[in-house]
Structure to design on (111 residues):
């Protein structure tokens, strides 16, 4: 998994690519949690190039979402592929993660 982080205005754009599985999820989870602990309150996670999410990957997303909620911020998902969206839907996680068509739309929604 590759992770690229870019500050845009008052938000953080995190672009992930590859597989979000047990071998890679710790890197993404750690990066998100460090930014949240460091004061990030608006994070867009662009997963356009993520083609697979395992249960370990879902756990990492949930941990980050809970940390962001506790901190009073927003974690948005962007570019969710249909197969990943189905997994989120089956696990009843669509209510946990606001999903946007792409990063630009997600960033614009932050105002």
């Amino acid at each position: 998994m590759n992770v690229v982080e870019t500050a845009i205005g008052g938000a953080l754009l995190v672009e992930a690519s590859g597989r979000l599985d047990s071998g890679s999820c710790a890197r993404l989870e750690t990066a998100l949690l460090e930014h949240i602990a460091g004061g990030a309150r608006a994070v867009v996670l662009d997963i356009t190039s993520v083609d697979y999410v395992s249960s370990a990957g879902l756990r990492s997303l949930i941990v980050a979402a809970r940390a962001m909620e506790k901190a009073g911020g927003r974690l948005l998902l962007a570019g969710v592929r249909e197969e990943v969206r189905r997994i989120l839907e089956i696990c009843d996680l669509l209510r946990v993660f606001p999903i946007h068509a792409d990063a630009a739309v997600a960033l614009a929604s932050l105002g």
